[in-house]
From TrEMBL:
SUPFAM superfamilies registered for this protein in UniProt: Mss4-like (SSF51316)
Protein name in UniProt: CENP-V/GFA domain-containing protein
Superkingdom: Bacteria
PROSITE patterns referenced in this protein's UniProt entry, alphabetically: CENP_V_GFA (PS51891)
Keyword Transit peptide carried by entry: no
Keywords: Lyase, Metal-binding, Zinc
Domain CENP-V/GFA: 5-122
Family statement: Belongs to the Gfa family.
InterPro entries: CENP-V/GFA (IPR006913), Mss4-like_sf (IPR011057)
Entry annotated with the keyword Cell inner membrane: no
One GO MF term: carbon-sulfur lyase activity
Length: 137
């Protein structure tokens, strides 16, 4: 059996364990991710929801994406750290913030999404695939 991906918030109140490999890993440069991360992008790994075990109480914040779909961000009510995202239009996936991993070196980004909204000062690996928005299904 493969080693699960584990992680959580800074204070440990929220924890996850995820069986299986990421379906997709990306740096997102959309304005929502820029604002939420306080940086030029957010870094994420998306998994099949069936493999996720989640413990702790998260506060949820819904926002509407450019395409009209609702994305829900889960963050810790104790330390305030954003840990995960879920998507109303894709209930079978669960996305974690790469920095929330216990072993962040396991994160291997595959692409940059919303690269059209990136800033010159946010230099990401030039060898990654780049998409102006989200890649096609």
């Amino acid at each position: 059996m493969d080693k699960p991906f584990t992680g959580g918030c800074a204070c440990g109140a929220i924890r996850y364990s995820i069986a299986g490999e990421p379906l997709f890993s990306n740096h997102c440069q959309c304005r929502d991710c820029q604002r939420e991360s306080g940086s030029g992008h957010g870094s994420y790994a998306t998994f099949a929801r069936a493999g996720v075990t989640l413990t702790g109480d998260a506060k949820h914040w819904d926002m509407v994406a450019d395409n009209g779909n609702v994305k829900t961000r889960g963050f810790c009510i104790q330390c305030g750290v954003a840990v995960y995202l879920t998507f109303a239009a894709q209930p079978d996936v669960f996305t974690i913030r790469a920095a929330s991993l216990d072993e962040p070196t396991r994160y291997q980004p595959q692409a940059v999404t919303f690269a059209a909204r990136g800033h010159d000062w946010d230099r990401l690996d030039p060898s990654l695939l780049k998409f102006d928005g989200m890649p096609p299904g």
